[in-house]
Write a sequence for this structure.
């Protein structure tokens, strides 16, 4: 009987045998794609364009991306104080006393 959602099957994010074998082979060979890009990046005899390419491609694996967040500030009090100060100056009222 249908339940309205999927049941059974492969878990989300699990890898299949072929993918696991490829990963294991890359790790056992001693040179993963990331290792290769870092090797290119550190080699000063290679041109800057290729080193820049390696840095660009390797960066997401080394450094986390900054996520955008929504700023939630209540500025109504600060705005009201600013408007009072501006209004007071326009009327010639001395400030700070």
């Amino acid at each position: 009987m249908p339940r309205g959602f999927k049941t059974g099957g492969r878990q989300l994010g699990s890898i299949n045998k072929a993918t696991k074998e490829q990963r294991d082979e890359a790790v056992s060979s001693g040179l993963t794609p990331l290792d290769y890009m870092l090797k290119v990046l550190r080699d000063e005899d290679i041109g800057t364009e290729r080193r820049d390419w390696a840095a660009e491609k390797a960066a997401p694996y080394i450094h986390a991306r900054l996520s955008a967040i929504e700023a939630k500030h209540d500025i109504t009090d600060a705005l009201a104080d600013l408007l009072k100060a501006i209004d007071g100056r326009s009327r010639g009222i001395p400030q700070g006393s």
In short: Residues 17-62 form one domain. The mean pLDDT is 81.
